[in-house]
Amino acid sequence: MMSSQTSKRSFKWLIPTIYIIFLMLPIYWLINMSFKTNQEILSTFTLFPAEPTLRNYAVIFSDASWYSGYINSMIYVGLNTVISVSVALPAAYAFSRYRFLGDKHLFFWLLTNRMAPPAVFALPFFQLYSAFGLIDTHIAVALAHCLFNVPLAVWILEGFMSGVPKEIDETAYLDGYSFPKFFVKIFVPLIASGIGVAAFFCFMFSWVELLIARTLTVTAAKPIAATMTRTVSASGLDWGVLAAAGVLTIIPGALVIYFVRNYIAKGFALGRV
Amino acid sequence: MALTLQNVSKRVGADIHIRDVSLHLETGSLNVLLGPTLSGKTSLMRLMAGLDKPTEGDVLVDGESVVGMAVQKRNVAMVYQQFINYPTLSVYENIASPMRVAGADKATIDAKVREAAELLKLGDLLDRTPLHLSGGQQQRTALARALVKGADLVLLDEPLANLDYKLREELRVELPKIFARTGAVFVYATTEPHEALLLGGKTATLSEGRITQFGTTIDVYNRPADLITASTFSDPPMNLVPMVKAQGMMSFGGGSVAVPSSAQDLADGAYKVGIRPHHLLLHRPEGSALEVQAAVSTTEITGSESFIHVESDGERWVALTHGVHRVEIGDRIPVYLDPSAFFVFDAADRLVAAPSGLR
Q1: Name one Pfam family in it (chain B) (predicted).
Q2: Which of A176, A178, A190 shows the shortest C-beta gap to B98?
Q3: B283/B136 same-domain check
Q4: Domain count for chain A
Q5: Which of A170, A175, A189 lies closest to B97 in CB terms?
Q6: CA–CA dist A67, A60 (Å, integer)
């Protein structure tokens, strides 16, 4: 009896541990590589950097072609998050509070925008933005990413908003609140966690999206992910710098996750908990 | 302020929520909307508040139409059956919110909030947020907010339905007094007849979106205009006995009894007789009574009272008796119908004779 219990218990921690090791291994390896010299990466197999170096990070923070990639990415991701959430707020409110002709179809149609691969839209976007002279600007990428982030934000926010009883709206109107005042003072604080989750998802999807961001930019607004794919030069790959760049791309996402970690589960359930 | 509803109807899609309602509510009056769930109480209140627009008809305040006017301009307060507060604000800010929007100065707000909080026993809870309160405290917060607003029209939609028994008893006595001072038109919706009786004032009985009767509460109770009103205003439902009046006698089944004085002038024929559950007696009363043999189908004991459900000739009745009665299910017992408590309805379900005095 005792022995079977202990063996059971050992299984309990074993499987998740193996799973987590598999998950964390590539990330560990990336971090490991980022502190190694190119020579060490290419010549030997070491679990820890033999001669830890910050050279790779120094390259990124001193070379404008590297760090401007981060700045560009952050600018368009920030822009996109702000635009997506502020556009989605009134849309989600309409979907959650009003019944109108074709509302359910429209809601579904919004979601289908997420189902098409971004590659489908890359060509028309390129044509369109060229025509308006928006190519290689931050706003171009930010707007293009709205294509899949606005529906997502609407979908998430609608779930959170529907969790707020309609009677609260009505009580506020009866109390004398105008709609804008009610929305800002009463309603937005109520769905603050929903806004956080929506912003997080917008941030994340915009941050990792490569294809559209690369198609619409040349140099002035080139995102970090694009910079990373263009480092193959005549002198070969700079493995260490690439690894350091990879680590630095993970950090913003990890930071944002840390701040919204308590709401993420609800966000994945789209507020319908 | 007087509120008038003129031939108001409300349809949502194919459903008729309110049918042709006309009401006149006086300044400073206490009005009860009494009806079962889905009878249209909430729909009617929403029309009064201006939250919904009537499909037909007009809503007038002091003779002027307010249909289409923004609710913000109407000076109405409403309390819902669910406890509705602003979860992100403290109790203090919740109560203060209508005055803050109106732009009252700080000292006035503070004085009024504390006064209302005192009245509704929220004094110690002002710093908490509503989600950290019990249901009763949440509802009292909502009531306090309605109170400080000083609205001309106060609508309470089953405000006590979700509260525990003791709080309900307390607040039911307090509420009309608290709001009476403000001189507002006070409308209180409830499903419970005894709540209407305890509140007094005037009562409008609702059934399927229609007002079946509107008058002083006691009058509506004593002289329900028709069968629907009578059954709405009776809990448990009024017992119905199909009777035949002939030669000065009312008869049911095998037995008969002398026609009560109130019904003496009625033509002979078939009538429906309504008897409130507490007039269906298990012991022979003094004076004449119709004795009927009935089979006991269920008994419910509530402590000081017992409900005894009986069946006779295919009719199902409920007797409300004091004390605990031990009768076995399936027993055949005699029940007594006191003619002085007969509500007599004609074939069209209209009241034609009612007992004199409060029954």
Answers
A1: ABC_tran
A2: A176
A3: no
A4: 1
A5: A175
A6: 6
